[in-house]
Write a structure and sequence with these properties.
By secondary structure, this protein is α/β, with parallel strands linked by helices. Helices cover about 40% and strands about 20% of the residues.
Length: about 140
């Protein structure tokens, strides 16, 4: 179902998890998703996995986008996917962006990450992926 025919816009929670304090990229993505008609909730810096999942639940989000530049993705993503499962939110599309080595992507996908956007991904690519994912 496209955003034009959905009863409500695609709702996206964007978050920075852990100690990573750089959020310029996630703010740019948030603006692009808003410009594409999505509702975006940015939780801010230094969130725990539990805080992020609580935001997804409270906001009835369709998508959770995590920005990670710290290299802690192999520690934080399992905690996030487990917290989503524990809250019955496994249906939420989980995307990841940031400095992620190509060799780690298959492991992240096995954990439930729908798509990993590495440096060089365009805002159009991210927006189009989320629009397609919401149709499923």
């Amino acid at each position: 179902m496209s955003t034009a025919t959905r009863s409500r816009p695609i709702r996206v929670v964007l978050a920075k998890v852990g100690l990573d304090g750089h959020d310029r990229g996630v703010q740019v993505v948030a603006r692009a998703l808003r410009d594409a008609g999505m509702e975006v909730i940015y939780t801010g810096l230094w969130q725990t996995p539990e805080e992020v999942v609580r935001a997804v639940e409270d906001e009835d989000a369709d998508v959770l986008g995590i920005s990670i530049l710290s290299g802690a993705h192999k520690t934080l993503v399992p905690l996030l996917t487990e917290a989503l499962r524990a809250k019955g939110l496994s249906h939420v599309t989980l995307i990841l962006g940031g400095i992620i080595p190509e060799g780690d992507i298959p492991t992240l996908e096995q954990l439930g990450v729908a798509k990993v956007f590495t440096p060089g991904a365009s805002l159009t690519e991210i927006t189009e992926f989320l629009s397609q994912a919401a149709r499923r």
